[in-house]
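Two records follow; treat each independently.
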Amino acid sequence: MSDLATDTGTQQLEQHRAELTGYCYRMLGSAFDADDAVQETLVRAWQGLERFEGRSALRSWLYRIATNVCLDNLRGRQRRALPMDLSSPVAATTPPGNMQPEAAWIEPMPDSELAVDPADRAVMQESVRLAFVAALQHLPARQRAVLILREVLAWPAAEVAELLDTTVVSVNSALQRARSTLAASQLTGDGRAQSLGEPERALLARYVDAFQRYDIDTLVTLLHEDASISMPPYEMWLQGREDLRGWYLGYGIGCRGSRLIATVANGSPAFAQYRASGPDGRHEPWSLQVLELSAGRIAHIHHFLDTTLFARFGLPAHPDD
């Protein structure tokens, strides 16, 4: 293959990287695993580009490779989850404990890394919500692929059948079973992704103000009565205003004096939390908060305590940088 052909082939493949990342993220539940899967997909495609010869659409061919990479990745692995999938809520007096490795948890993804047509933004937001991505992990891997391809990406059943080397009847059956599993278990959680209007932006502004002043009495008024918080990699999670008040004023008191910087994750409002630490009180990365809003209040706050996410989200090392 000539240098020009190589460059052209690489450009053709690279233009699909963002949408493949979104697909692999939904399949695997991890931004970093999705990176690896997409890179392997593009390497395999580049190596086979001369043999491809346009026998099918390039996009379909890439999705076939990506699906096989994801299925290989998922073979024999424990599913990723959110803390709410693993246990019941605990009391505010429960000390932090039972940390699980990074590979146990659903990871958040920056919206900027997910390809989205503005016309399809509402569908995209719903399909990358943390609760929905976590729900997908309950499905067998091939059912998961069918559901994403058919209902998120809107592929015709015949194309999905060709991609998976199966029949349309099998695809439709897998889709029905996947839908039934999600519906029966109510695995996608309550509420749907919503665009941020003026009331939601005002709610978030009040949240930032209350959190940075550590005015917990005000903060809990912004929450639903049964609002919850989670803190991966800890298994524990808490639910209910009074337990959340007790947590913030108890084991969570170290968050007093934190600074927040706004970002977006999984189609939801998010904040980088920098906690004051050290003798000089300098603010250091602590957690990425992803908020779920419903009916004018905050329904859940995910506190991801993996500070390697800050670089991925393009966040500064310190809030004043």
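The next record belongs to a different protein.
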Amino acid sequence: MNILVTICARGGSKGIPGKNLSKIANLPLLSYSTVVAKKFGDMYEADYGFSTDNVEIKSLANSLGFDTEYLRPAYLATDTAGKIDTIRDLIHYEENKNSKIYDYILDLDTTSPLRTVDDLVIAFEKLQSNPTALNLFSVNKANRNPYFNQVEIKENGFFDLVKKTQTAVLTRQSAPKVWDLNASFYFYRRSFFDLNYRNAYTERSMIYEMPHMCFDLDEKLDFTVMSYLIENDLLDFELMKLT
């Protein structure tokens, strides 16, 4: 079984400039993903691929043991470039370099680092157990529900629930269950990338619901909150990190 573990870290970011070179709880943000990637990869004798368009990020990855000669093409380093296309290009590079075809790809997102090796192992076993599934992504229980307390603008300019059932949903507890995509990790069967999907949502996708908190870094405040939680040991699980 051939497995490729990938990490993609673009240099440009409008939401949080320079986020992939930033530190969180006094450690490089990137290190929280590389340490888990290498632990999981060692368990399954996986190969590693790293995608960036930035030489500073590439140098940091090398210093963390994620050596790579690959540099992301400019057309995949724009604000409009899709993550799937980026991973696909990296897969082709690694397959050509290593003269092998991968069976599974695990992609770790640097900006959603609250994950464990156990999360990855259990999720991987779940995907393997269903041979018809194309991929699996990590989620958490949603705090808001489109059937109960999320609204959108309608064609008439007024606002109403995003989704409705035949019978009105009167309580949060009775609403259909939904999940938040936390963007922490994604498992793919290799065949996924031959079917020209542009995002991770397919008719044969699975989820792994994390049993602990997980959120990604979208705003500057998120860095402050996550650093505080890590530094003060306030996470509801043990986070594997460099020391």
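Discussion point: Residues 3-141+178-231 form a domain with the Spore Coat Polysaccharide Biosynthesis Protein SpsA; Chain A fold (CATH 3.90.550.10). How would you locate this feature using only the token line?
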